[in-house]
């Protein structure tokens, strides 16, 4: 739905691609126009003056970034080197941002002291602190909706959506808001962690730098993924885990974006390493998994680790479903009420009060430490498992800023402690200890939540450097993810996106036919027949209907049969009609009926078993309410799979610099093998752009790439790469040479 792509200038939108060599006259003209506007436009208010200044600043920054990008491209002269350089910048910036986020959280903690004292004094503090934090968070969200009309990318779901749907587009202001809100939420006691926001901030850094330097779709997405990897690497000082996290979770939902390609995988590694070094320099070496030497597991404990995996799978599946259900319930009833975070904080404080444990508040780092050192008794673990589960659900659904990474580790530590204690009770002889079960339980619950077993396996092994734990860890993580999936739970981040009605690229087919209802395509019947209608009326009705299918309805509006034009034509040929024939005589009473709640997938199955080109849609009483046409169903399916797909062409200039052209929706890349009838005809003679609306972007003859010369003759068997609308591409298959350019004339 648009013409073939044209070359963009650096002054164009954020979809403009990698910097082009040379100065863009378009950008200079834009800057001159901006200066003129700033001088001549009447300023009626301070707000208008501020908007004018901000617009001019954005244009100048945009132009400066492209110029810097041009110089870097000239210096590196190699696309991989260029990406590595930018990935290193992203890693350093993401590592510094992660340190700044932790410093902000620690500073805010001073304003929200930990609950202390006994009796009523402690109860008042436990309830008041998260409630006060919720009030501030509600004000932050209200202010963002009022003054900053941008889509916030608060955590990993937002990063996945940006990568999969919005081509890596993330606005920088969202990172600042997320950081501020995360500090308030965690310091005041919301049951969330900072790792998700750290990923979002790192991804935002990658997107902002990519936009500043003018990178296009794939390279922008690569830097967003690099920022996400850097965010995890900085949060845990685990670069390898950051890379696996980005590959398995961030890029895991995008079939068309291969994280194994060098253009994507190399920036992930470089950014994760740079981020870890920066984190070491800023915050020093630290680890959430500070454990001593764990005793190796014994073979008899395999039963215990299998039981742990099953329990973790149940907890993970239950958590995903509860969060989604609570979020939808709150959204439907209260929308974005400013008091919701405060109400959630009040509930979290009440849960902490009921559990008589301050670890219900905040991320729960103390519980993680206790479970890893065997200091968490099973009674406390059981109470904390339930209280922390509910507190995290309420915090996330109630609008707190933060992620579920740390709370999932707390849940896993509690589950592992319970299973480990049971195994020590019933298993005689040596065992690996409760702390080993707690550590494995953390990885298993995370794997069950995300359906991503590799990330916790690599992360825990990287942080503990204990090879003895790797075998039970691998077994538990794989089985927990399997159990969670068999229980019907979606991966947590994907479930959150589905709750927001976000359709990922690999789900377009499913969304197009398996979830959509036929009411989206059904149309009112243009004309219906009564059972007594004569031949002339039947003929006129068939002429008026696009599908040549007319339904017969009785006096109550119920479908009594169908008159199909093709079937009627066959009866005419066989001489089976008489002048006295009525619609009741000619109608086929065996009509498949559809109801409004049926899906398009179900309608396709019905069409496959019927030769009718239209089917009736009826209400529960059988009354005709609409018509579904076969052509409309197939058109919807084609539009969803083809027209919404966006692609890009990776072009290489003569000096080896990669240029990326993003194809708009409805524009496709395809190939034409030159037929014998076009042998000797030139591209100028064919005028493919003028006659078919397509553009030739590549010309191959065997293994040789030819320059696109409009005056050079084509040869039979040459392959042309064409870009344009699908109907234009199809038209090139039927194109004939001009009369004056027949092959025989040459």
Give a description of the structure.
This protein has 746 residues and is an alpha+beta fold. The chain folds into 4 domains: 79-283, Clc chloride channel (Orthogonal Bundle); 299-499, Orthogonal Bundle (Clc chloride channel); 518-639, CBS-domain (Roll), CATH 3.10.580.10; 666-745, 2-Layer Sandwich (Alpha-Beta Plaits). 58% of the residues lie in helices and 8% in strands. The chain contains 28 helices and 11 strands. The protein has helices spanning 25-40, 46-76, 79-109, 119-147, 156-164, 172-188, 195-213, 217-236, 239-250, 262-283, 302-334, 340-355, 365-372, 378-397, 405-426, 434-450, 454-464, 470-486, 492-499, 508-515, 535-544, 565-573, 583-586, 600-608, 630-643, 683-686, 688-692, 726-733; strands at 528-529, 549-553, 559-564, 614-618, 624-629, 648-652, 658-662, 667-673, 695-701, 704-706, 719-725. The strands form 4 sheets. The chain has a 4-stranded antiparallel β-sheet with strand order 8-11-9-10. Strands 1-2-3 form a 3-stranded mixed β-sheet. Helix 21 (535-544) links the parallel strand 1 (528-529) and strand 2. The chain is globular and about 95 Å long.
């Amino acid at each position: 739905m648009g013409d073939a792509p044209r070359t963009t200038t650096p002054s164009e939108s954020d979809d403009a691609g990698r910097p082009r060599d040379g100065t863009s006259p378009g950008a200079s003209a834009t800057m001159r126009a901006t200066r003129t506007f700033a001088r001549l436009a009447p300023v009626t208010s301070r707000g208008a003056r501020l908007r004018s200044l901000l617009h001019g600043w954005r244009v100048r920054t945009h132009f400066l970034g492209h110029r810097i990008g041009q110089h870097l491209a000239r210096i590196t002269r190699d696309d991989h080197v260029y990406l590595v350089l930018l990935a290193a910048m992203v890693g350093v910036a993401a590592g510094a941002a992660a340190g700044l986020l932790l410093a902000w959280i620690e500073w805010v903690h001073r304003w929200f002291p930990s609950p202390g004292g006994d009796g009523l004094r402690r109860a008042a503090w436990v309830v008041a602190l998260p409630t006060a934090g919720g009030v501030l968070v509600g004000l932050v969200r209200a202010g963002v909706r009022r003054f900053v009309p941008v889509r916030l990318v608060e955590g990993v779901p937002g990063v996945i959506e940006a990568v999969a749907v919005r081509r890596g587009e993330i606005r920088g202001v969202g990172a600042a808001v997320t950081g501020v809100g995360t500090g308030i939420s965690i310091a005041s006691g919301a049951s969330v962690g900072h790792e998700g926001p750290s990923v979002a901030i790192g991804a935002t850094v990658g997107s902002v730098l990519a936009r500043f330097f003018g990178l296009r779709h794939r390279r922008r997405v690569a830097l967003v993924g690099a920022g996400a990897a850097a965010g995890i690497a900085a949060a845990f000082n685990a670069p390898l885990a950051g890379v696996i996290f980005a590959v398995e979770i961030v890029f895991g939902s995008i079939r068309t974006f291969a994280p194994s390609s060098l253009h994507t995988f190399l920036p992930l590694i470089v950014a994760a390493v740079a981020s870890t070094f920066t984190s070491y320099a800023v915050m020093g070496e630290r680890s959430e998994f500070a454990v001593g030497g764990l005793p190796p597991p014994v073979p008899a404990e395999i039963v215990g680790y299998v039981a742990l995996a099953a329990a973790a799978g149940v907890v993970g599946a239950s958590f995903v479903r509860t969060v989604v259900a609570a979020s939808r319930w709150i959204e439907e009833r209260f929308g974005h009420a400013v008091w919701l975070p405060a109400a959630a904080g009040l509930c979290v404080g009440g849960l902490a009060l009921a559990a008589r444990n301050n670890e219900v508040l905040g991320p729960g780092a103390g519980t993680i430490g206790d479970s890893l050192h065997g200091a968490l008794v099973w009674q406390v673990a059981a109470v904390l498992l339930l209280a922390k589960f509910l507190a995290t659900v309420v915090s996330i659904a109630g609008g707190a800023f933060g992620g579920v990474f740390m709370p999932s580790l707390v849940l896993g530590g509690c589950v592992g402690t319970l299973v480990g204690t049971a195994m020590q009770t019933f298993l005689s002889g040596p065992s690996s200890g409760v702390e080993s079960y707690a550590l494995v339980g953390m990885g298993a619950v995370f794997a069950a939540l995300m359906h991503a077993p590799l990330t916790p396996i690599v992360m825990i092994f990287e942080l503990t450097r204990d090879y003895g734990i790797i075998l039970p860890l691998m077994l538990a993580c794989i089985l927990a993810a399997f159990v969670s999936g068999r229980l019907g739970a979606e991966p947590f981040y994907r479930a959150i996106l589905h709750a927001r009605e976000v359709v990922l690229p690999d789900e377009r087919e499913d969304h197009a036919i398996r979830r959509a209802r036929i009411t989206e395509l059904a149309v009112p019947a243009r004309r219906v027949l009564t059972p007594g209608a004569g031949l002339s009326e039947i003929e006129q009705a068939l002429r008026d209907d696009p599908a040549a299918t007319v339904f017969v309805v009785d006096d109550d509006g119920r479908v009594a049969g169908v008159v199909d034009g093709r079937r009627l034509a066959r009866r005419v040929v066989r001489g089976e009609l008489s002048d006295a024939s009525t619609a009741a005589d000619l109608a086929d009473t065996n009509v498949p009926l559809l109801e409004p709640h049926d899906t398009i997938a179900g309608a396709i199955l019905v069409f496959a078993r019927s030769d009718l080109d239209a089917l009736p849609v009826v209400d529960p009483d059988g009354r005709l309410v609409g018509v579904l046409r076969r052509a409309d169903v197939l058109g919807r399916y084609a539009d969803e799979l083809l027209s919404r797909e966006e692609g890009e062409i990776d072009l290489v200039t003569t000096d080896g610099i990669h240029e990326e052209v993003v194809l708009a929706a409805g524009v496709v890349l395809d190939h034409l093998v030159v037929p014998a009838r076009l042998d000797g005809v030139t591209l100028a003679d064919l005028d493919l752009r003028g006659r078919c609306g397509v553009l030739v972007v590549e010309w191959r003859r065997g293994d040789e790439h030819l320059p696109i010369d409009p005056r050079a003759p084509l040869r039979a068997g040459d392959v042309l790469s064409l870009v344009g609308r699908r109907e234009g591409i199809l038209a090139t298959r039927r194109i004939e040479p001009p009369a004056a350019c027949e092959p025989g004339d040459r």
